[in-house]
Specification:
This protein has 343 residues and is mainly beta. It has three helices and 29 strands. It is globular, with a radius of gyration of 19 Å.
């Protein structure tokens, strides 16, 4: 069942709607048209008590003025592009440098601040569309974006991404949900596993150096389940740069989950499946409690963790990485599934 309600109005008067998808077990997902944002996910714990497992905001002001992309659809190019420039077929494109005036982060935020057009597909599926004009944020091509959110009976939220451009361009889309399976506090006691033998180290501007570094023997080894907080404070130059985890993991091939997270207190578990080659683990390192989130509570450091399925960061400038440059008319398609359960 899908129910539509008014979420609010932006500062410039644009209406923002909220669509709630609910399945027969009362698991529910709230999606707002501002940024095609997954605003809340209500999941039962081992005792049948429901809680919202996403950190974020319960009003449009929070999303407009205080957001760190909580729950938003991000693109055109998710993650970072070094120096805000790249070259396609000998033509250099200079795009929005919205991070410290140095890098382009999440495509300059265009998709995340747009009002998307919503259409109910059926009882459990919602489609959102947005067209980005040629040259938006400096990127080439007029791009039609489409994201389909489906909540299944097994408590899996499936997100399908589609895009097509009229010019050769780069496309890399993801969702920036901040998960907290306890529904409160921080996530340092969450148990996390990532199916990755390697990750991409970063420089002082959080741009990959080009190295594919094995996780073995480092704080980045999540091949076996461990608490997020176990090694987050280790003496490691990579952790120092990001003030914690803010790194791309190079996913292994296979049909199993790319990542699994578990909160021992509530018993809630999250499995992440994707057809993409990477996932960015971000542990809310720069949240400092000064921003007020849902229910009037501050967003404290490590209030949530992100598992952003993606192509690697700065891929347009890293020919050795798997590429995501698409010809005119060539379709970008990707699928990520967040499946919830208890144990």
């Amino acid at each position: 069942m899908i129910v539509k309600n008014l979420f609010g109005n932006t500062a410039d008067g644009r209406q923002v709607d909220c669509y709630t998808i609910r399945n027969s077990s009362e698991t529910a997902v709230d999606i707002i048209t501002y940024g095609a944002t997954v605003n809340s996910i209500y999941v039962a714990d081992k005792n049948g008590i429901f809680a919202d497992v996403l950190a974020g905001f319960d009003n449009i002001d929070g999303h407009e003025n205080h957001s760190d992309y909580e729950g938003m659809t991000v693109g055109r190019y998710a993650n970072r592009i070094a120096e805000g420039k790249f070259t396609i077929d000998g033509v250099e494109y200079n795009v929005e440098k919205n991070e410290k005036g140095i890098t382009c982060l999440h495509g300059g935020g265009e998709l995340s601040t747009a009002i998307w057009k919503a259409m109910i597909v059926d009882d459990n599926s919602l489609e959102m569309t947005y067209t980005s004009p040629d040259g938006a944020m400096g990127f080439p091509g007029r791009v039609d974006f489409r994201v389909v959110f489906t909540l299944h009976e097994d408590n899996a939220l499936k997100i399908e991404y589609h895009a097509v451009s009229d010019k050769k361009t780069v496309i890399n889309m993801t969702n920036h949900a901040y998960f907290n399976l306890a529904g409160k506090g921080n996530v340092l006691d969450h148990i996390l596993q990532i199916n990755a033998d390697a990750y991409t180290p970063i420089d002082e501007n959080s741009i990959p150096t080009g190295e594919i570094r094995p996780v073995e023997g480092t704080p980045f080894d999540f091949r076996e389940p461990k608490a997020i907080g176990r090694d987050i404070g280790a003496e490691d130059d990579q952790l120092a740069i990001g003030k914690g985890y803010d790194h791309n993991f190079c996913l292994n091939d296979g049909d199993g989950p790319a990542a699994t997270a578990y909160d021992p207190e509530s018993g809630r578990m999250l499995e992440v499946f994707t057809d993409l080659c990477g996932v960015q683990l971000y542990t809310g390192n720069f949240l400092d409690g000064t921003i007020i989130g849902k229910g009037g509570k501050p967003l404290v450091q490590h209030a949530g963790f992100c598992l952003e399925t993606q192509y690697y960061p700065n891929t347009p400038n890293m020919p050795e990485f798997p590429q995501c440059t698409f010809d005119a008319g060539q379709k970008f398609c990707s699928c990520t599934v967040f499946r919830f359960s208890v144990k």
